[in-house]
Amino acid sequence: MHRRAHFYYKHKLLFLARFVSQRAARKTGIEIHPGATIGRRLVIDHGTGIVIGETTEIGDDVLIYQGVTLGGTGKDTGKRHPTVGNNVMISAGAKVLGPIFIGDNSRVAAGAVVLKDVPPDSTVVGIPAKVVRQNGEKVVPLDQIHIPDPVSQELERLENAINVLQDELSALKGAQK
């Protein structure tokens, strides 16, 4: 159904393209914008919740699992969605956002949030996603125990900002005397 919708989209039959695409989304739970470009042999395994944006480009032999978003960040114009290379696997719940490139033969782990380009032959994991394997070799040991606490980091940042403001206030009070 996407290929039909994409044909209509390319021939400026936008209403018909959206009609076909929305009908497919209601039937399958997979929302693919008619403007997305999809290569050969895309496999969508357990497709519920998949969203593929308008300027997304997907290469050949790509495997996508349930709950994946290939979307935009809302900050970009023009090319707003990812480009996925050939022979890529994107696991369940992964979010690939923005006009970034996922290199050939790469893997995106389940639940990963990818905001930067992924080199070819790599595996990325985490939020935000980091390369943990490249060309079959570990890049950084994955340490899920000693990760920084984002709440603690934000409290420290706020405390530093308060200290700067207090110093400026003290300087202003001293200047008034």
Report on this structure:
This protein is an alpha/beta fold. The chain is built from three helices and 16 strands. The strands form three sheets. A seven-stranded mixed β-sheet has the order 3-6-9-12-14-15-16, with no helix packed on it. It has a five-stranded parallel β-sheet with strand order 1-4-7-10-13. Strands 2-5-8-11 form a four-stranded parallel β-sheet, with no helix packed on it. The longest helix has 27 residues. The model has no long low-confidence stretch (mean pLDDT 92).
Please provide a brief summary of the model.
With 177 residues, the chain is of the alpha/beta class. It is built from three helices and 16 strands.
The shape, in one word, is extended
What does the radius of gyration come to? Answer: 22 Å
Task: Supply the helix-strand structural class.
Answer: alpha/beta
**Mean pLDDT across all residues, rounded?**
92
User: How many strand units?
Assistant: 16
Q: Identify low-pLDDT runs.
A: none
Percentage beta strand: 15-25%
Order of helices and strands: HHEEEEEEEEEEEEEEEEH
The number of distinct helices, counting runs of at least 4 residues, comes to 3
Multimerization state: single chain
Strand order of the largest sheet: 3-6-9-12-14-15-16
Distance between the termini: 76 Å
Supply database-style keywords:
7-stranded mixed sheet; 5-stranded parallel sheet; 3 helices; 177 residues; alpha/beta; extended; 16 strands
Write the layout of secondary structure elements.
Elements lengths: L1 H9 L3 H15 L1 E3 L4 E2 L4 E3 L4 E3 L4 E2 L4 E3 L3 E3 L11 E2 L4 E2 L4 E3 L3 E2 L4 E2 L4 E2 L7 E4 L4 E5 L2 E2 L11 H27 L1
Parallel strand pairs: 1-4, 2-5, 3-6, 4-7, 5-8, 6-9, 7-10, 8-11, 9-12, 10-13, 12-14
Antiparallel strand pairs: 14-15, 15-16
Helix pairs in contact: 1-2
